[in-house]
Amino acid sequence: MKIATFNVNGVKTRLPHLLRWLxxxxxxxxxxxxxxxxxxxxxxxxxxxxxxxxxxxxQRSWNGVAILAxxxxxxxVRRELPGDASDDQSRYLEAAVNGVIVxxxxxxxxNPQPGPKFDYKLAWFERLIVHARSLVDAAxxxxxxxxxxxxxxxxxxxxxxxxxxxxxxQPESRACWERLLAQGWTDAIRHLHPxxxxxxxxxxxxxxxxxxxxxxxxxxxxxxxxxxxxxxxGVDRWVRGEEKASDHAPAWVExxxxxxxxxxxxxxx
Length: 269
Description:
- InterPro entries: AP_endonuc_1, Endo/exonu/phosph_ase_sf, Endo/exonuclease/phosphatase, ExoIII-like.
- The record marks 248 as: Interaction with DNA substrate.
- This protein is α+β, with helices and mostly antiparallel strands and 269 residues long.
- It has a single domain (2-255), classed as Endonuclease/exonuclease/phosphatase (Deoxyribonuclease I, Chain A, 4-Layer Sandwich), CATH 3.60.10.10.
- Helix content is 20%, strand content 24%.
- The protein has helices at 15-25, 44-49, 116-136, 171-181, 188-192; strands at 2-7, 29-33, 52-57, 65-70, 75-78, 92-97, 100-106, 142-147, 186-187, 218-222, 230-235, 251-255.
- Helix 3 (116-136) runs parallel beside helix 4 (171-181).
- It is globular and about 45 Å long.
């Protein structure tokens, strides 16, 4: 089973890129962030024609999340992160797909910091930590994936010097990340590639893509039940090289899940 996460940076604007990626890579599950589309503006027909059943929560501006499942309908579990009923930003979606609980998230950017946007980022992160605690030891396999807007360490960025004041590298952001991992989550990409610089985001400035001046901010975390199934993880860098591409590239994991035992018929031996 291949599960991927992709900040599309506008699902309607980047729809051709999304469809090419789905056709070429054929993930079983694709989690999307930053749809930048209202609920009724999501390209449902095009996604269905590509062989994927979508579950989505749209919103104007820089929010919006979706879960696409190839050949099956995702079963919705929840449409918001618990802990703040007044929070109306579309940043979290959770569904069951072929026995795996898939949580798709778009954690707040937090810039500029300090300020209310950074406060919101940390508050949202605290809510995520609380909810994740109920998932890490779940009886079902769980994957927590998306754009976390956190560079975990200086090894996950081409050069931290010019980013020191950015919300993605703040000690508070990194401390939240460490507390989340300490619950027992496996950072799939770093687990399989401990010594390799791997990036998922290259901004549009100063030819950062051309110079591979990237950041790793899109992550896939596996709970204790799912971690033993991890076989491969990586980034589809070619997507970032497309013309007028998103500033993110899809990150993915391949999992070897145990087949469910066949159901015996009533008259079977």
